[in-house]
Amino acid sequence: AKYKEAERKLKQKIKELKTRDRVKEEFLTLALHKLRSPLTPIKEYVSKILGGKTGNINQQQKRYLEIVHRQVERLIRLVEELSELSPVKSGRLGLKKEPIALLDIIDRVVQSLKREAEDKGISLCAELPASQLIIRGDEKTLREVFTRLIKNSLSETSPGGKVIFSVNGEPKVVGQNKFVEILFPDTVGGIGQGKTRNKEGAGLGLFMVKSIVEAQGGKVRFEDESRRLVILLPFVG
Q1: In this structure, what DSSP letter does residue 171 have?
Q2: Tens of pLDDT along 164-209?
Q3: CB atoms within 10 A of CB 135
Q4: pTM
Q5: Among 27-36, 37-46, 78-87, where is mean pLDDT lowest?
Q6: 182 near 171, Cβ under 8 Å?
Q7: Which of 219, 220, 227 is nearest to 197 (CA)?
Q8: What is residue 222's three-state secondary structure?
Q9: Sign of torsion, CA 146 148 151 157?
Q10: Are 89 and 127 in contact (CB under 8 A)?
Q11: Closest Cα to residue 141, out of 195, 91, 79, 69?
């Protein structure tokens, strides 16, 4: 009888916790919607003023408006990252763990970001092995992870600079498993080293990358000496 009562109380507690989590998630969704609604028109109107659509502005006014514009963009990015964080934290990503051609994904990501890199005067380079590598994971979310990391690198690189990332053609053995190693410039802060850069949204971005990769059986680590972010993904063949 005691065990049955303890089991009943445990089930009730689990139910209460799930309800509490659902309420928090619903509140966060509503709050983010309320935050997002005014930010878009604010950014749009500030852009119009900066673009001279409402008449000439002096240098001091321009400087102040540029600060407002940057801060609004920062808030929009924060809202977007919080929106993306919700399904990651709740485990509702619906990942498909299937064999995928890694180099094909990377090629598509690079092609999609080449124009942005060229517009910023930055050379985007992927050092890839000659042979295709098959990994196990979810193509959609991995493409988002790679895009996020490369975009971060582009935003932190000055015009005339280079963003170089690479894929190791030799699978790395960790324990009983083999992984493909992908190396990115560190632009989201150190992992597991107690080092995080003072960048807006860096913590959220890092949490998302780490959560998505680990949910697919992969690993994320930080190389202190080379200042590189390393992603390990399960190797199939």
Answers
A1: P
A2: 889 998 888 888 899 999 998 855 443 333 333 444 445 556 777 8
A3: 28
A4: 0.63
A5: 78-87
A6: no
A7: 227
A8: strand
A9: negative
A10: no
A11: 91
